[in-house]
From TrEMBL:
GO terms for biological process: phospholipid translocation; positive regulation of myotube differentiation. Its EC number is 7.6.2.1. Component of a P4-ATPase flippase complex which consists of a catalytic alpha subunit ATP11A and an accessory beta subunit TMEM30A. Mg(2+) binds at D414, T416, D844, D848. It is found in: Cell membrane; Early endosome; Endoplasmic reticulum membrane; Membrane. The chain crosses the membrane at residues 69-87, 295-318, 349-368, 934-954, 984-1006, 1018-1040, 1052-1076, 1082-1107. PROSITE patterns: ATPASE_E1_E2. This is Phospholipid-transporting ATPase. Residues 130-191 form the P-type ATPase A domain. Residues 44-96 form the P-type ATPase N-terminal domain.
Amino acid sequence: MDCSLVRTLVHRYCAGEEECVDSRTVYVGHREPPPGAEAYIPQRCPDNRIVSSKYTFWNFIPKNLFEQFRRIANFYFLIIFLVQLIIDTPTSPVTSGLPLFFVITVTAIKQGYEDWLRHKADSAVNQCPVHFVQHGRLVRKQSRKLRVGDIVMVKEDETFPCDLIFLSSSRVDGTCHVTTASLDGESSHKTHYAVQDTKGFHTEEDMDSLHATIECEQPQPDLYRFVGRINVYSDLNDPVVRPLGSENLLLRGATLKNTEKIFGVAIYTGMETKMALNYQSKSQKRSAVEKSMNVFLIVYLCILISKALINTVMKYVWQSEPFRDEPWYNQKTEAERQRNLFLRAFTDFLAFMVLFNYIIPVSMYVTVEMQKFLGSYFITWDEEMFDEETGEGPLVNTSDLNEELGQVEYVFTDKTGTLTENNMEFKECCVEGHVYVPHAICNGQVLPAAAAIDMIDASPGAGGREREELFFRAVCLCHTIQVKDGDEADGPRKSPDSGRRCVYISASPDEVALVEGVQRELTPRDIKQLPQSHTARKRLGFTYLRLKDNYMELQNRGNDIERFELLEILSFDSVRRRMSVIVKSATGEIYLFCKGADSSIFPRVIEGKVDQIRSRVERNAVEGLRTLCVAYKRLIQEEYEGICKLLQAAKVALQDRERKLAEAYEQIEKDLILLGATAVEDRLQEKAADTIEALQKAGIKVWVLTGDKMETAAAACYACKLFRRNTQLLEVTTKRLEEQSLHDVLFELSKTILHCGASLTRDNFSGLSADTQDYGLIIDGAALSLIMKPREDGSSSSYRELFLDICRNCSAVLCCRMAPLQKAQIVKLIKFSKERPITLAIGDGANDVSMILEAHVGIGIVGKEGRQAARNSDYAIPKFKHLKKMLLVHGHFYYIRISELVQYFFYKNVCFIFPQFLYQFFCGFSQQTLYDTAYLTLYNISFTSLPVLLYSLMEQHVAMDTLKRDPALYRDIAKNALLRWRVFIYWTFLGVFDALVFFFGAYFMFENTTVTSNGQMFGNWTFGTLVFTVMVFTVTLKLALDTHYWTWINHVVIWGSLLFYVVFSLLWGGIIWPFLNYQRMYYVFIQMLSSGPAWLAIVLLVVVSLLPDVLKKVLCRQLWPSATEKVQTACLVSGPPLGSHPLASL
C-alpha cells in the first residue's frame, strides 16, 4: 500500500486538514455546487456536542493528580513522602503522606464534583431538540447530531443551537431581533439581517431548493467579528456573491426575540462556536502577596537545606570518635561497615530533610486558597455596593487578587460611562454658525436673548433654511438606531403627535440623544411664556420613524413623511472616529452624510463655515459638552457606482477585510461640505468627585484615559476634582508640538517641575493642600505616539523615562484622544516602570478591555455600553463611587488579613521545627523526633489551622466607617508594607525566640528535678509533649493577642481549638487503640498533667514567649505610632466598638 496515501488519510482524519487553511467552505444543505463551479471538497468539522467538562471517568485520577502535582509545593511533599518510603527516616511516612493525602483528596473531590456538574449541564444541552430542514420538511433531532451545513429553524424565545448564517425570517424586512445576555450580558435587543438573496425563502421547501456555498474564516473567539461571503447559484446566471459580516451571524447562546421564526445554516458547531471558544480563561494574574509568599518559601527552603546540611556534618563530626559511632551495645554489621561513605552521608542528609520538612507547610496553600475563595463573597454580599437603580451588584470574576485591592498605587479610569453617567442629553446644535437650543425655558425662566443664542425662527433666508433642514435630515439619517414602539415591537408606526412616542434603541447613547433632540418639542407653558416672535414653530421638527424595506422614514416639520433609500452604511470605528450613510431621496438625489469627531471631520471638509463652527465646538468642549460634527456631499450616479464597486471588493475579501474597508472608507469620506455641529451633555456620576478625592487622600494617583477631545475631558476633570483651581496644567499636545519639538517640550516641563521643589511623592502628597503648587499633565494620543516611538539615534527609552519623571511629579494626568491600544500602552508603561507600582484600570466599554487586561487589577463597570468590560475584568461594580469602598475598605481588610495569615504560618512553623533542630544536639544527631507522629501530622491540619483561617476572614483592625472616613489609613499598608523583609525577619526571629524558650525552658526544668509524685523522671516523649503543648498554646494565644475584632465565632474557634488539642491528647494517650502496633504516647499526656511543675512550666513559658511581642507593640504604640495605631487608640478611648455587627464589613 502506498505510504503517502496512508499519511494523507491520517493527516486529514486525525489532525484535521481544515486547520491548515485560513478559510472553510460550507455547502448549504450539503448540496454540491453545480457542474463547472468550484470543486466539491467536503471538510471535516466537529459535531455539535459541547464539552465544558475537564475530565472523563477514565482519565480523572491520572489527569487530576498530574495537575495537582504540577504545583511545586505538592510535588515537594510528594518527594519527601517517597523519600520516607524508600529510606530509613526518623518519622513515619504517615506524617507527610497524610497531610498531602488530605490536601490532594479535598482538592480532587471539589474538582470532581464541579466537573460532574459540568457533565450534567453538557448532557442537558447536547440532548436539547433542534428542528432541521431535511428533504423539504422539518425533522426534530438532538442538538448534538447537528452538522456544519445543516439548515436549522429556530422559533421565538429559543436559543440558537450553534453559530448560524441568517438566511431568512418571518419578518417581511428580513430582520430578526436577538438578545445576547448569556454571551456578553447585554439585555438590549440587537437587529440582525438576513442575506439579501435568501430572505424571500420562507418555507421548508424553499430552503430545500436553496443552492449556495459559504466561504468564511476559520473559527475564532471574537464575538463581534466575522468575515465571509456567500455564493448563491441560479440555473441560468453566474453565482451572486454577497459579503457576510457579524450582522449576518447568529451566535450560539443568543435568544431569538420578537420574531416568529428564522432559518439559518450551521457555520460553526460544537467546540468551534464562538461561545465555546470563549470558555478559555484569561491570562493568569498574580498578586504581590503571592509573589512575596513564593520568595519567603524559597528562603525557608534554603533554611531547611542549611539545617539538614549542618546536622549531617555535625553527625559525622560527632561520630568521628569510634565509641560514639559504634558503641558496644549497637555493633554494625559487615555490610554496614562496607557501605560507601558518600552514600551514607546523602541518605542521612535526606533523612534530616524529612525531619525538618514541616517548616514548609503544605496546609498554607489550602488555607490561602480557602481564604481567597470565601473572602471574595464578602464583596458580593455587600449591600452598600448594590445599585437599586440598575438592580446590579458587585461581581467577583477572580478571587486571586483580593489582597491586590489593598496595594493599588495608580488608578487608570475611562471618562464616558465611568466617571460620567453615559446618559446623554441634547443641549444644542450649531448650523451655519447659528445656534439652536431646544429648551427655551431654564428653571422656569425665559432664556435671555443673548447674541450667541438663536431660536428656530431666527435662522437666515432660503439658502440657510435649506442647509438647516439638510442638517436635521443628516442627524435623523446618519445612525444605526433601532425603533421599537412603546407597546408592540412589530406594530404600525405612529408619529409623536398621535400620543405614542417612538422608543429608540442603539449601542451608542449619543445617537439616541441626537435623534430625540432634533424632534424635541416645547411645552404649551413654554410657548406661552416666550415672546410673540418666538412662537412660529413648536419644535426643531424632524422625527425619525423607522427603517422599513431598506427605506428610512422620517417626519418633517410639516408632518409629511419623507422616505430615503438606505444604500450603504460606513460603520463607526474607534480609529476613524466617524460613520457615514449613503442614502437616496425620493427625487433621486444621492447623499453621503458623515458624522464624527471634529478632529476627523474638519480635515476632510472643503466648504462650509468652518471657523464659526470650530469656535462653537471649542466653546462647548470647554464647558464639558460632547461634540460631533456633521458634513455631507452629493454624489452623482457614476460616483456612487464607483463607490459600490470599491466597497463590494473590500466586503467580499476574506483576507485583511478590515484594512481594505478602512482604505475604502478613507477614499469615500473626503471633499465634504460642513453643515454644523451638535453638543450633548454627559453628567458626572453620583459621588464621582468624592471618590477621586478619597483616592488621592489615600495616596493613589488617578489618571483619566479618554477618547474625548482635550477641552471636554479637562472640563470633566475639573468637575470631578481631579484638577483643582490651584493646579497648574502642563500640556504635551499636538498643538504645542506644532510650535516646539518634543525634545524641547519635555525638557521644559521637566525643568518646571523637577527644579521648582514641587516633587510630589506618594508619601507626602495628599492632593488636597490649597497652599502648595501642584501640577496636572494633559497629553493626547498623537503626542504619546511620538513619545513611545523609538528615536532616530536608537535610544528608545530616553523620552519615555523623561515623560515618566514628569508624570511621577504630577498630582493627576489626563490622556485625551486615546485609542484603545494606547490606553493599554499607558498602563503598561507605568506598570513596568522602575518602581513597579500596582496598577488598576476601570472602564465600562469594549474600548477599555485592553487596559483592563493589562493592569494588575481590572475593574469593569456594568454600563450602557454593554458588559464586555465587566466580562473581561477581575471585578465588576455598578458605579464608579463603589470603587472607594472596594479599595479603601475591602482591599484594606483583604491585605491586612492575608498578610497576617502568611506571616503567622511561617512563624508557627518556625516555632514547630526549630526545637526539633535543637533536639538533635542532645540526641547525638540520631534523627530522633521530638514530637509524636500524631502531633507531627495534625499540627498544621487541625490544631492551629482553623483559628488563623477565621482570623483571615473576619479581622477588622479598625472600623469600616473609620476606613471610609479617613482614606489616609490606606497609606499604612502601601508598598506591601506588611510583607517587607523587615517584617518577615521580625516574625522569623520571634519564632526562633519562642522556640528557644519552649525547648530550653522545658530542658532546664527537666535537668535535675524529679517532677512526678512518685519520684519518676519525665522521659523523652513527655519532654516533647511538654514542648508541643507550650507551643500550641503560645501560637494560638499570639493570634488571640493580634485579634482586634472579637465575635462569638472567634471565641468558639480559638478556645475550641485549644480544648480540642487537650481532649485529643487525653484520648490519644489514654486509650489502647487496637489498630496500633505500639503506643509510645500511652499515658504520657496524663502523666505530664499530673505534675505541678509541668503546669507551672506551661504557664511560665507561655507568658515568657509572648512577653517580647507584647512589649514591642506597647513601646511602638507609645513612641512611634502609625496612623492606624493612633486611630485604634482613639477608638479605645472614645469607646465605640470596632463593628456594630460581627459581619458588618464582610
